[in-house]
Amino acid sequence: FLSHLVVWILFAPRLDLLSVYGLLACLNLWIMFTVDRPMPMFGIMKTHSHILVDNLGKTATRGEAVDIKEFFGAYSMDVVTSTAFSVDIDSLNNPKDPFVTNIKKMLKFDFLNPLFLFTALFPFITPVLDKMDYALFPTSVTDFFYAALKKIKSERVAKDHKKKRVDFLQLMVDSQTAGKTEHGSSTEHTEKGLSDHEILSQSMIFIFAGYETTSSTLSFFFYNLATNPEAMKKLQEEIDQTFADKAPVDYEAVMNMEYLDAALHESLRLFPVAGRLERVCKKTVDINGLLIPKDMVVMIPTYALHRDPDYWSDPESFKPERFTKDNNESIDPYMYMPFGLGPRNCIGMRFAQVTMKLAIVEILQRFDISVCDQTQVPLELGINGFLSPKEPIKLKLKPRKVSLTEDICNNNTS
């Protein structure tokens, strides 16, 4: 199973680009992740953002400091599990759910695991390790997800005549069906369809990659707002203008919010979850006298570039105005790459942005965020595969006062 579960499958520096597109297999899947149009899974995201807000509200009313990663981790897990395996869970309140327990086992993955480092440095040995039954993830976990996938897929196929739920899994199943129609068999790898193992691999890496990056980015974002209350107030004003009287959040309006977009970009500049990127040189090249041999791994220090004072004024400060439309053109595009750049940039970028922006709007509609005596300022960062704080980020949430319009309505009905 190791050969199927390549951790960097969608971004693999050693995989030729056509193979990556082949694994994506389905044009609808590619369009869903990359084309700027309403995302069919937005309704699924909203369901889980409402659960997130409800869970935060219970803690806020008690006046307790909130370990925000705990809540954003649950939200992120619920969204990716719902879209990857079509399973709706409230993981914060159902910690013993089999999906929750198995995902948590998978997420304990250690980037410093000798086996992972060995396969990363010498990927050609993965077939040998596969024959020896070595696995990056516990066999019990992969067996659970494979059984769940087979069950869910068979139910989807049996109900093909009924209205389909549009999610990541359904698009991959549709791709497999297209391959079967074209070639007569869905069990062998084709250019059109994904095998069951490939569907499982993509679903698992979708959870693995989406959970940590989304939850950590949201945690850093709200830390930045709590330590910069003037920015939080400005963002809340934009939210209140866009969705008057806590109106329901819709996709188009969220994606057109300029200050929200700028604030998220600025937070990603300060805390890019992928602190570094790697690419493999496809041929020997000379750049200004620096010879880079073929197959050399080139590491791009994202975190350092994002804080380089030669390119960013006052680089340690949180200033969303850097990314407003008036200032965008002054930014060197190769000095800002939280999702990577070029044809191998993060395919899940748009999905992640929608997931995060929805949560941000729903939370700031209802709560003010502030630091407390348990908030570490400034943050100390840990040494992990992804950028993360050394200690949990703890903040205070306070229900917002009602707006003037709501206040008038309440007085008229009393």
UniProtKB/TrEMBL annotation:
Key words of the record: Heme, Iron, Membrane, Metal-binding, Monooxygenase, Oxidoreductase, Transmembrane, Transmembrane helix
MF (Gene Ontology): heme binding; iron ion binding; oxidoreductase activity, acting on paired donors, with incorporation or reduction of molecular oxygen, reduced flavin or flavoprotein as one donor, and incorporation of one atom of oxygen; steroid hydroxylase activity
TM stretches of this protein: 6-31, 111-129, 204-226
EC class name: oxidoreductase
Keyword Transmembrane helix: yes
Cofactor(s) listed: heme
Any Pfam family matching the protein: p450
EC code(s) of this entry: 1.14.14.1
Binding annotation for heme: C346
UniProt record similarity statement: Belongs to the cytochrome P450 family.
Protein's UniProt name: unspecific monooxygenase
Species of provenance: Sinocyclocheilus grahami
Name of the gene encoding the protein in the UniProt record: LOC107574732
